[in-house]
Model the fold of this input.
Amino acid sequence: MRNLIVFSGEGPSVRTDLRLSRALIGEDGRIYICGEKTLYAFESNGSIAWTSYLSYACNASMAPVHGTVGKLYLVAENRVLRINFSDVRSSPPAVEVFFGPEKGQAGAGDIIGLAASTLSSSVFINIKNRGLLLYKMHGKLHWSAGAVLYQYGYSLGCRKGVKDCSFSSSPVVDRCEASLYISNNAGELYSLSLRSPHFNWVQDLSSFDKNFTVTPGNNGRLYVTVPPLSLVLTLDVLKGNILWQTSIGPLGSAECEPVVDSNGWVSIGSLDGFLYSISPTGALKKYSKASEQDYVIQVSPHLDCSGNAIYMSQTEMEGKVVRTVGESTCVSAMKPKGVLFTMLVPATGVIHWSESYPGKVSSMLSQSDLKNFVLDEGLLLSFIAASTFVVVNAAGTGKPLPCRSKRNERTIVLFLLLESILLVILAGLVRFCCIFWTKKKLQDQGLGSFLEKRRSLQLKKKEFDRTITQLEKKAANEAVAHEVIEEIGDLVRERESISRKLSTTYSLGRDIGKGLRSESLLPVYDGKSRSFSFQSARKESVTIFHTLSNTSSGESSKEKDSDGDFHEENQSSAKGKGKARAPV
Done:
């Protein structure tokens, strides 16, 4: 157990009778810590935002994990609890058992690790000697996987023997690759798909050691830290091949793991007092703000909200001694004297802020609710990384970096908008190539001739529309209706001929002829009578029946036919009522 630093007016003292859980820096900027049977939500300035009683003692070695907005998951007495605090202002946080027995019932087994993925709305639970379980966030078991899987006719995992072989680490989610990593007690590392219990690959790392930690880079790389050998391995996430390995100084514990910034630099602290940073190409840099002879780094660094800088803590030790035993380096010390916190950019080595504890940091934090808790340097580092008041200190020497979310919010929106526009254009081009260029009509003419002919037909159709509209208005006058009916019929037929060409031969869609129904004048002839339908300028639907006489004798009959013996039926659209008129 690490030494715990307690706030005191005379400097730090040491206690080991109380231990809080590892901290989670939430997406809302708050810090979530579990102690005994209580979950604490701290503001970044150290004040308590709210608390929740859990009824079960939480596991101090596991930090809570993010769920969907307003939800957290944590392990307590071999149960997974879900805390819903989305509406904490109006009601207290709701605590429920997400996985495991109810109170008073026997447990399902020791929970080794917990992880969650908001991308797939899943919660991953590793149970000792049982396997990996995937639960959807609504509570339904989706799939389970053991350390051995028969896939494609082959046995994957536990190559050195199935007996007593099981998953032994906490699952780790790679958000960019939609993959999950977990190791077994035989020293094998697995890559699984988030959607199904499918093994992407299994890499045997037992030649290095059986105990290691895994850190996804979310950049196509996976980093494996081997504390006993002081090694950092870089793996390819697609196949699990080792790209390179880098030796660093001695590590404090198996929990010590690196952090990856937005520039792709991997940084991890060592007991020799140095911060080791590895570039995306494998180049190594060492940083030490203080004299490494008196300092050690025994907690993992934290990423700044900008994504470019990191926070590290160097603990000043009393009586530090470094010895080399064979190929191993051992570091021993009497007790801690103080802590130096530093914010730097690994890619450039620029230090943006540095402060000691006890000092201004302790005075600022001791004025908050943190004075009632026992904190180690790891928890202090979590609060400093989440705080904004620490970056610019009282002396004004600090220089804050813009947080990644605030700095890139507008850029991301503009990028997504531009990407959507490009996708629409690309979809249109693909449709044009798949449909338009496969037309048989283009085999004998060029694209320019085709488009010019199509445009010419469209102009002719518009001209016919205007002419027909004018004639329909003229035909609405009873005195001249019979003089324009024939002309309108001819124009309608020519316009429909052009419409058929535009919808088939010169269309930009499929060459399937479709019958077009015209709302304009359509002459119908049955050998005895002809009828015409159109709309007048006053939006009245008019139907004209022209009846041919069957009698050929009698001068009066001929004169009657020549004068146009017909009836009009005028239906008003406003009243919906027809009115018959006398023959003309």
